[in-house]
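Here is one chain, start to finish.
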Amino acid sequence: MVDKLEQAIVGREAKVGIIGLGYVGLPLAKAFINAKLSVIGFDVDPQKVDFLLSGKSYLKQFKDEDIKQWLDSGLFNATTDMSRLTEADCLLICVPTPLTSDHKPDLKYIIQTAESIKQSLRPGQLVVLESTTYPSTTRQVLLPILEESGLKAGQDFFLAYSPEREDPGNTTYSASSIPKVVGGLDEDSGRLAQKLYEQAVVSVVPVSSPEIAEACKILENTYRAVNIALINELKILFDKMEIDVWEVVEAAKTKPFGFQAFYPGPGLGGHCIPIDPFYLSWLAKEKGLETKFIELAGQVNSKMPRYVVDRLEAFLQEQGKQLVESKVCMLGVAYKKDVDDPRESPAFEILDLLRQRGAVVSYNDPYIPKLPKMRNHEVPELKSTELTADFLADQDVVLIVTNHSDYDYQFIVEHSQLVVDTRNATKNVVGGEERIRKA
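Its structure:
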């Protein structure tokens, strides 16, 4: 059974099923299709599936022509029918892993997916979890559900963990060019998962267990969260001292060793960095331990939206204005530049705070034409407003939350009364210094 599946993978005859067709699943599908493996995409959202089957993309990083090429190649299909999971030889789970309201891991999507797989699991299939989660999830959560099928892992089917490392908006690295860490439940599972990814990605890094691979992902993102918290805290201090933190970082990064540049911002966004450290601190509490360093970083990063709004209010007061009834245009609601992904974006916390303080808020984002519904925020029905000279001049303040490359910052500064910049986006603007404030 092991040899048969391995031969099918190496011969590129194995069919790959990808469960979850979002910012992780769809790029992964592309990597396997480019490697000439057949892919079935599964998603519970019928609108996504309909889009794909009609040759249309719902993510900025893919054009409609890309999806049409996949369909024309005969290597791609998409469905909401989970009974078709049995058709795939290798099943890759790419579903969300959010937090509950009290910052505990919410594994409901992994559990629901495992239940679906259990119904059609057959001998000889490989299952790989890619969703970011805490160490032991594969063994303690996924494995027991799958074995309720009556099949035995490592004997009848195979199980591994390989963390996704997608970076939406990054044009340098794609799913196929990022090394893949793989940890199998047993030797056969690890080898099969390694062989599978070797067909589609630049290199594979095998590790000794799923727990090592799970911990690797948590370490990567916690490292970033802690260092971002450090620079955010220094920014607050340097603001008090009237020192430009951005210039400090530019100077520090000239050191060729021992320093990696991280940058301040209005808060953390995306599906990984704001969430993963809490998975680790929750796990520590379950083990009777504390992760004070990680929790402190979370506290620092989570207070940045309020710090931005406080600074904006102070800048308005310097001009003899109150935030109440002031017109505030937010530039960018995506969580990072040049993406259409609003997940966990600090823009929505800032929006809540501005509205609570009585501001009249509008926004512009070239990638998000209408504000989406968010789990933890009351989002008003707003559409992206065109940035005309007249519109900008009518705003009391323009707040740069996301530094999209599409923005003409020279034009924005020239036509605005006041610009509050949280991303150093206006660093190359010529003139207009009296209208720019950093927050």
